[in-house]
Amino acid sequence: MRLTRYTDYAMRVLLYVGAQDDARLSAISEISRAYGVSQNHLMKVVNDLVNAGYLESVRGRFGGVRLARPAAEINVGAVVRHTEEGFELVDCGGCIVAPACGLTGALAEALTAFMQVLDGYSLDDLLKKRRDFAALFGVPEISS
Which terms in the Gene Ontology molecular function aspect does this entry carry (predicted)? Predict the structure, then answer.
């Protein structure tokens, strides 16, 4: 299974913002520089995460984004479901062997297992080494 770049960027944004002190705002330009990715791409992702209730946005000169809820309440599986358009691993609809093939069922079972694993993690679980994130991003050390 391969997740889209959109999901990758969404998780990167959440990890970056989640690694910050709860009160600190992160600018999209700052996140873009930290990861070396396009600011335009991140703007779309951040807007979506704000609309979905994962991030809170503060406008203005000293604005930015921060988590809209505690990292422990942000489920990784839910974020992936939100950011991915579809989970069809193969197109079995037009295949002539589909009625007799067991691949469809096996792939559905594998996808279910994959998502169950992601459902078992929160953003907080992924941020257990917050101090390491802060050092990697070059931001002030945060309290954990």
Answer: DNA binding; DNA-binding transcription factor activity
Phi-psi region of 15 (alpha: psi -120 to 50; beta: other; left: phi over 0): alpha
C-alpha–C-alpha distance, residues 28 and 90, integer Å: 35
Domain assignment of residue 36, given as a range: 5-137
d(CA 123, CA 130): 11
Among 69-73, 134-138, 139-143, the range scoring the smallest mean pLDDT is 139-143
Residue 143 lies in a domain: no
Q: What is the pLDDT of residue 46?
A: 98
Total count of domains within the chain:
1
CA distance 85 to 144: 34
Alpha-carbon distance 119 to 135, whole Å?
28
Phi–psi pair at 4, nearest 5 degrees: -75, 160
